[in-house]
Amino acid sequence: MSGNGLVPSIGRRLTTSTLSPFEQLGRRMYDILGDGGILKEVVQPGEGPPVPQNASVIMYYSGFLEYSNQPFESTAHLKYPPMMKLGRDVTLAGLELGLLTMKKGEFSRFLLQPQYAYGEMGCPPFIPAAAAILYEEEQSSVPLSTLVKVINTLRSFGNRFFNQSRYDHAKDRYKQAITLLRNWDSQNQLDKEKIQVALLPLYLNLSLAELRLENPKKALKYGKKALEIDSANTKALFRCGQAYHELQEFESAQDYLIMAQSKKPFDSDINNLLRKVALCEDSTACFLFMFLSSSCKSSFCSCYKVLCLLIS
């Protein structure tokens, strides 16, 4: 008893027993932004550089509400989780910002405050208002054989979009597949060769999509990337010839098309474009050719014969 006869008040000491589960978890996590909105705990470290912005990722994840042992969403049960593109497919700001801190093979937990999750309104009926969310994420390190299956699926979707003349969508699928392959890190020479084999048709398809979108510079860029893999590839040579033709660099176009023709001397597409480029090297002939090609309804060969008469 104190000297004044009063029972001294007992100061309340904060112990782990008085903390909620998320509060206890948060005490061993670190603040990745500095405002307490996104806390992170690395359970298993990864390797290599962090995930780059606008990357496409494959990950296993589960989302939990406080006091719940069952996730409200999860991909942990899936053999092949969906590929997600940052900036487009990942809808929670906290989840995306957390992903940008992860490395390949990493397993981490993220505790997201409402402003980085579902906000003050929540997402009824599953997410209450102003709810903190816990995400457990694993940046998957899948075998190359599995990755190639994903790549083939993406290329198939891209081809389907291309055949529907949805060239922007086709381009996105091809670029996603290329990003996945280029981010694959392996010291195994056989794996590196397999990656190059998988990249080649993607570069070829992407080059053609850019041509359809009237982006000849980008088409040329991807055509040359294909040639870095296979310098004698006829389609890659033809894509570069097409791109140079669209850029009106006729001498370069002719060089690539002649190389393509040497591989396939009877290919009608190569021969027709080569003939057109040869004419367009002379500006007057090019003008007459363009006029005739756009005005007459006869075949290319008929236009060509008329043009020869005019300039002879």
Keywords:
7-stranded antiparallel beta sheet; alpha+beta; 49% helix; single chain; 11 helices; 312 residues; 7 strands
Q: Structural class of the secondary elements?
A: alpha+beta
H/E topology pattern: HEEEEEHEEHHHHHHHHH
Strand content: 5-15%
Straight-line distance between termini? 122 Å
Largest sheet: 7 strands, antiparallel
Q: How many helix segments?
A: 11
Q: Per the principal axes of the C-alpha atoms, what is the gross shape?
A: elongated
For the CA atoms, what is the radius of gyration?
Answer: 30 Å
What's the overall average pLDDT, rounded? Answer: 82
Helical content band: 40-55%
Taking pLDDT < 50 over at least 5 consecutive residues as the criterion, the unreliable ranges are 1-14, 287-312
Count of distinct strands: 7
General description of the model:
The radius of gyration is 30 Å and the shape is elongated. A hairpin with a 7-residue loop joins strand 3 (56-65) and strand 4. Helix 7 runs antiparallel to helix 8 (250-263) and helix 10 (283-295) packs across helix 11 (300-311). The chain has helices spanning 21-26, 93-99, 144-163, 167-183, 189-212, 216-229, 234-246, 250-263, 268-280, 283-295, 300-311; strands at 30-31, 38-44, 56-65, 73-74, 83-85, 107-112, 133-139. It is built from eleven helices and seven strands. Helix content is 49%, strand content 12%. The protein is an alpha+beta fold and 312 residues long.
In short:
The protein is α+β, with helices and mostly antiparallel strands. The chain is built from eleven helices and seven strands. A hairpin with a 7-residue loop joins β3 and β4 (73-74).
